[in-house]
Amino acid sequence: MLSGTFISFEGPDGAGKTSALAAITAKIQPTLGDRLTITREPGGNPISESIRAIILDRANTDMDYRTEALLYAAARRQHIAQTILPALAADQLVLCDRYVDSSVAYQGAGRQIGEDAVAQMNTFATDGLLPDLTVYFDVPAEVGLRRIQAHRQADQVDRLDVEQAAFHNRVRAAYLRLQQAHPERIKLIDATQAPDQVVAEALALIKQTATRYF
């Protein structure tokens, strides 16, 4: 039995979701203690983090797009088996920076290898496990790219960050399609707002979904 609650954070590059997750963690960690698991994709355990390093390495410019999608799915499967499922079985609140919607948006739409094909691949990888809530931080691609250029150090910019604007526009359009197709799970936040407001809205959604932890 999986008694815990699973919440993912999604958004285009530069949306500020990772910063929002850090701020939310600081607010709720004192209350939840070891009932809270914070994790990320790709990553979340040593095997998945090793796959992450390969995927995001800017030296791997020759990586085939389908190889990239398969590596994300492989990292995700290991993440689920080793990190997410044990935490949910232990009745923890799991907050995850990116999950399957990222693959549909980035590889399916951004890389143009097919949103349905990537979704089907990840149905196998996840064995159908979806978050109870996905908080989607929405920004126009040009806003996100300006934020990356202004705030990230050179060694923090990965293979996906350096893609052209058209790639990032396709990613955002796919996210919006996903949100419209699954409005009961995916809740949109306008991430062009002041950071404090974005964090407040995200935290409110989390508390609505995971009421018993608060």
Automatic annotation (TrEMBL):
It comes from Levilactobacillus parabrevis ATCC 53295. The gene is tmk. This is Thymidylate kinase. It is an enzyme of class 2 (transferase). Its EC number is 2.7.4.9. NCBIfam families: DTMP_kinase. One of its GO terms (biological process) is dTDP biosynthetic process. GO terms for cellular component: cytosol. It comes from the Bacteria. The keyword Transferase applies. Keywords: ATP-binding, Kinase, Nucleotide biosynthesis, Nucleotide-binding, Transferase. Residues 9-201 form the Thymidylate kinase-like domain.
